[in-house]
Design a protein that fits this description.
With about 300 residues, the chain is α+β, with helices and mostly antiparallel strands. About 25% of the residues lie in helices and about 25% in strands. The protein has a domain of about 120 residues: hypothetical protein PF0899 fold (2-Layer Sandwich).
């Protein structure tokens, strides 16, 4: 009978720096198993600098009626959203004793690598949802106001709101008010309407089924009337996240390109392994992962929220 080819002695390099392809495959497989809402809700961009700056221009005023031969009015644009993102580094590592390695406990190593990947994916999702969790307080846009606010300011002195004037729980009536506001409140500096359309109704897990009932039922929700459900025409996609901490907060979002929600990546997820030489003083082997990015919002257009009643 032929000798077995898969011997423990053949896999010494699984635990040194040469192990990176194997360990990285374990890491990547686990990381990819976690769905990423931030890829759906945010603009994901990359930068090669330690800061990323957004500088936008406000819209021009309405055109003038002109008589034959009349000179044109030439106007200058005012600066709009101007915000700087400073890159932050995130990282974590695990280490293994030489004794664990020499005793062939690869299943424990694999488990630790998978849990490291899972933790990294969850960290990114929590940070993304915290933009909404803190969107009525500490998370601000370029004008210094919270992302969701009743008085976002424009250079002309005009204001617009992307929050219900009176906070309310999710219901057919509050959603109707929000949809009307979405059509009328997003204005430029000259008063022109942005005409941004909502695409996503973002809710915590507690409101997922309520949101689906309101937006996707064939007939109107919460009434005995057999009227057609008008929200079907809005084709809102219900998205829920367990990382939204307010159980009655809810949000309307346009497509990412119509919002100021940003994930700015300086360094994508990266892994490194180090073998026995690195752990000379304590006979340990190391594996780590890191990424650098910043997340937030430049402007308040295309996003609308209510913290609930």
């Amino acid at each position: 009978m032929a000798s077995p080819s898969a011997l423990r002695a053949n896999y010494d390099n699984l635990y040194s720096s040469d192990a990176l392809p194997v360990l990285e495959l374990l890491f990547d497989n686990e990381f990819s198993r976690h769905p990423s809402l931030r890829q759906v809700l945010f603009n994901v961009r990359s930068t090669d600098r330690d800061i990323w700056q957004s500088s936008e221009m406000h819209d021009l005023p309405f055109w003038n009626k002109m008589t034959e031969g009349e000179d044109y009015d030439f106007v200058s644009q005012k600066q709009g959203a101007n915000k700087t993102f400073v890159m932050q580094k995130f990282g974590l590592g695990v280490s293994f004793s030489e004794e664990l390695i020499s005793d062939g406990k690869f299943d424990l190593v694999a488990m630790a690598i998978r849990k490291l990947a899972s933790s990294g994916a969850e960290t990114q999702e929590v940070d993304a949802m915290n933009v909404f969790n803190n969107g009525f307080t500490s998370e601000t846009t370029w004008d210094g106001r919270p992302i969701f606010d009743t008085a976002h300011t424009l250079p002309s002195g005009s204001t617009f709101r992307n929050e219900l004037s009176v906070a309310a729980d999710l219901s057919p009536s509050s959603l109707e008010t929000a949809l009307i506001d979405f059509e009328k409140q997003f204005i430029g500096d000259g008063g022109e309407i942005k005409n941004i359309r909502p695409k996503v109704l973002l809710v915590p897990s507690e409101l997922k089924r309520t949101a689906m009932e309101i937006t996707q039922s064939a007939l109107k929700a919460d009434t005995a009337d057999n009227n057609m459900n008008p929200f079907l025409q809005d084709s809102l996609r219900v998205v829920s996240s367990p990382h939204l901490t307010d159980s009655d907060g809810w949000y309307l979002l346009a497509s990412p390109e119509d919002t100021g929600l940003q994930v700015i990546q300086r360094q994508a997820m990266r892994t490194k392994a180090a073998g026995p030489d690195a752990g000379f003083s304590n006979d340990s082997i190391y594996y780590k992962a890191s990424y650098r990015e910043e997340i937030g919002a430049t402007h308040a257009y295309g996003v609308y929220g209510s913290p609930g009643a």
